[in-house]
C-alpha cells in the first residue's frame, strides 16, 4: 500500500469480509454498565488455584450480558481449604469485589455455582474462625444459590484456572512437614 506500484482494489469479496467484521464487532458481548434497578446474576467458580466470577445483567432485549469479570488466585493456605470452603470463598470474594453495585439491590442476587457441596452450609454447622466472618458478611445480601452444571459455566471456570499455574492436584504430595533437622536427638544422661 505504501509503494507507488501496487494497485489496491476494493472488490466485492473485500466488502463482504469488511461487513462481516463490522457485524461481529457490533454483536460481540460487550460489558454492560451495571444497573441497580435490574437483578444481578453472578456465575462463580473455584479451582485448586483460584476463583473466577462473572457479574451479569440482562439488556433491553432480555439477553444476559457480562458487567464484569473477576479472577483471583489462592494463597498457599487457601489452596488447602476444603472444596466447599474454596467455593464459598469465591462467592465472598465476588460479593466483596462488586459490593458497590450489589449493596442495596432491589432484587435477590442470584448466584450460579457448579458445586453442590455448598449445601453443606444449609444445615447448622459449627463455624470456624474463617467461616464466621464470611457468614456475617453474607448476611447483608439477599442471595439465591442455584446449582448449574459445570459444563454450562465456561467463563467462570476459565477465570478460575490461571494460565501457567496448572491444576495443582499434587502440590502437597511428597512434602516433608517436619524435616529431620528440626528434631533434637535425645541426650544421654548416663555417665560412663
UniProtKB/TrEMBL annotation:
It comes from the Eukaryota. Signal peptide: none annotated. Residues 36-141 form the Reverse transcriptase RNase H-like domain. Keywords: Endonuclease, Hydrolase, Nuclease, Nucleotidyltransferase, RNA-directed DNA polymerase, Transferase. Transmembrane segments: none annotated. InterPro entries: DNA/RNA_pol_sf, RT_RNaseH. It holds the Pfam family RT_RNaseH. One of its GO terms (molecular function) is hydrolase activity. SUPFAM superfamilies: DNA/RNA polymerases (SSF56672). PANTHER family: ENZYMATIC POLYPROTEIN-RELATED, INTEGRASE CATALYTIC DOMAIN-CONTAINING PROTEIN. This is Reverse transcriptase RNase H-like domain-containing protein. It comes from Sparassis crispa.
Amino acid at each position: 500500500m505504501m509503494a507507488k506500484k501496487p494497485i489496491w482494489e476494493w472488490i466485492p469479496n473485500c466488502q463482504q469480509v469488511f461487513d462481516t467484521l463490522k457485524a461481529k464487532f457490533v454483536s460481540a458481548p460487550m460489558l454492560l454498565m451495571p444497573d441497580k434497578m435490574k437483578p444481578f446474576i453472578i456465575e462463580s467458580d473455584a479451582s485448586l488455584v483460584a476463583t473466577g466470577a462473572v457479574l451479569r445483567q440482562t439488556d433491553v432485549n432480555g439477553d444476559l450480558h457480562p458487567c464484569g469479570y473477576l479472577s483471583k488466585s489462592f494463597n498457599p493456605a487457601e489452596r488447602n481449604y476444603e472444596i466447599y470452603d474454596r467455593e464459598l470463598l469465591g462467592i465472598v470474594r465476588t460479593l466483596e469485589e462488586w459490593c458497590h453495585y450489589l449493596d442495596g439491590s432491589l432484587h435477590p442476587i442470584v448466584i450460579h455455582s457448579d458445586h453442590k457441596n455448598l449445601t453443606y452450609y444449609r444445615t447448622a454447622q459449627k463455624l470456624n474462625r474463617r467461616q464466621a466472618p464470611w457468614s456475617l458478611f453474607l448476611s447483608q445480601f439477599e442471595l439465591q444459590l442455584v446449582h448449574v452444571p459445570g459444563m454450562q459455566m465456561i467463563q467462570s471456570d476459565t477465570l478460575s484456572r490461571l494460565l501457567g499455574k496448572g491444576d495443582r492436584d499434587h502440590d502437597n504430595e511428597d512434602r516433608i512437614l517436619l524435616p529431620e533437622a528440626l528434631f533434637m536427638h535425645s541426650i544421654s544422661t548416663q555417665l560412663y
